[in-house]
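An instance as discussed:

___
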Amino acid sequence: MEFKNKTEEELYIANCTSTFIKEMNESNDIQNLLDVGHRILGQPLMLVDISMCFIAQSGGESVKDEPFWDWILTNGYVKEEYTNLIMEDDISTEEKFVWEYGMENHRQLVAKIIQGRTTLGYLKLLEYNHKITDIEKEILGNLSNLIAILMSTSSIKYKFSNSKVEAFLESLVERKTTDASDINDRFSALNIRLLERLFVIAIEPVSKTELAVEQLYLLKRKLHNLLNRPTVFIHQNRLIVLFDTSATSFEEDYNYAPLMALLKEYKLQAGISTQFTELSLMADEYLNALSALTLGKRLGLKDTFIFFSKHILDQLILTYTDSHNINYLIHPAITTLDKIDKEKNSEYVISLLTYIRFGQNLTNTARELHIHHNTLKYRIAKIVELTNIDLTDYDLCYHLYLSGRVWELQNSIKNT
């Protein structure tokens, strides 16, 4: 369509928008609105949520040579490689429109469906019948704005909303549901079968930056596909997984390695709760998973998985240090040896701590420290001489062990 001047263009855009508004007022239906958009724009339209799940389309049945559209119309969601491509792009950009290339035989103009600062989905216009003009781009933008109103105000719960399972799990971590019998009954009604050992996994970026909402939903879809579990949900801008397994430990589950690979790929870190069996404990275990993440950030840990159970002593020490001087927990012998190490570049502290951790076994300790058995024997004798400690005293050895962990945490905090 050709226009004589700018005024005619603006009048045409206004008339199209008026047509959209009339349809919206009459039907209050997204599908009808897309049908009008298809008639006006003359190109196939598709609406998906932020996890790339299909919501509605118009004109897609006429597309004959576009595998991407055929797949999503058949299956209701995008292929894994498309999700990977989207994750690699800066989907959190504030730009209203994005051109998509690569996965399709025809390029797509994508308009974000935005309500306030929240992205609800994407409206895709396939450049199939003719080249998309600037006027059509503006019309698509107006259409996306009206769809945003429908998606945010309609009583219909579109696919970007939490499922019943996700909503129920979120109520557990928020302690809205606490009665054990009621929790089990409701979970059974959702037809979810869990294996005997449970863990809560809390996932967030290794860096201190938060994930954009679009990234959260795409990663949630990836976790759904990888773990084949409906128990993945978003809470407080984190990905949360209720992870069940029949393996004797979390590390022995067959999903351990692929999950680690996914988290590493997207620079994510996971806090793992202690093992539990009753869903009524999920809120407490959620807090344990968060505590593991907080500890990892505080100590600058780069581990992909941070297990709360492996850092319980660290949690107790750091809780104490929040209101007390950490040096009060360190035995004077460690302080003395640390001072000597710094002056003479010796390794008395690490030798003593390793010796205690290995149950005062000279052979195993020497192997761990990569020194000769006799060298270690001489070094331990020298440590006893310098500090006058009695290594046959069980309580003293425990105090030294605790002091060693405090000393290591102190150094870790200094280096972060």
Notes: Residues 155-161 have pLDDT under 50 and may be disordered. The chain has three domains: 6-153, 164-310, 326-415. Residues 326-415 form a domain with the Arc Repressor Mutant, subunit A fold (CATH 1.10.10.2840). The beta strands are 45-49, 54-58, 97-100, 108-115, 118-126, 197-205, 232-235, 238-245, 268-272, 305-307.
